[in-house]
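Morning. Coffee machine broken again, so started the prediction first thing and wrote up yesterday's gels while waiting. Chain of 292 residues, entered below exactly as on the submission form.
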Amino acid sequence: MNSFQVSSRCPLCQATVYKVVYDMSVARSSLDVPGLIARCKACAMWFKILTNHEQLTEAYTGQYGQEEAGDEYFLGESTREFFRNILSEIEMQDVVSQPRLLDIGAGQGALLEEAQKLGYEAEGVDLCEANVQKARARGLQVKHGSAEKLDYDRVFDVVTMMDIIEHVVDPIHLLGVAYRALKPEGELVVYTPNHRGAVVMLARFLRVFGISYPAYEIFGGNHVCFFDDRSLPLAIKRAGFVERKTKLFPYDPARPGQHISPVNLAVVTAVEWLGKPFNRVFRLLTYARKPS
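Came back before lunch.
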């Protein structure tokens, strides 16, 4: 065991009793984070046991934001509309003339721009230097570095985390950073995949019969924590927040910048809509409040 190896504890409850479900310790690309996929026997949280912590850092600091499809995905109108809808449902207890917002994992800054249009004083942080440079080039205030090292104390009215909590080995610590950064009664918004969705269930089923590609797409990439509509509210509660509401909705595999074959597009779309009546869809959005 080298000095970079992550302890095999559940990131949610810290238990050391777990079952290794998949071996995905061989990376398929430079953006993958290899490891063993485990399920905690104490709280049922799915997580990745990493073989080397350096691989996690390398996956996030290099190529993000440099692909040609990146601009379309990060800055496209569909992404902006999605962010506008999320921001429109934020509730603040105190009326503030220019509320402050922090976006953890800000990417190229589309959420920050939409927040500014709504009257927020917005800033962000991102680990990928290419993303930060593109955001700063458009006049946005985005820090380069790890969100876990931020040192804010009751500064912001809103903290957002869009597709970021699944990328960190210690999500409770990250939520604690957000907790400290928020003013009392401030709002936290977390967006992440729901691993109780029908797409995940299908991928696990196919894996039993030797069809591994779907499971590798879900578990073998650069996610290290695999939340669902039970474990995410529990994590938020353990960090001190009070859950306000949680929304589940289908994943859109046809979104701009997504590389997917017509066959896979049809299958994923069909499975998502079949799972919708049962809340077995792949996207999860939670709003929570820091108590006064």
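Residues 1-6 have pLDDT under 50 and may be disordered. Going to sketch it on the whiteboard this afternoon.
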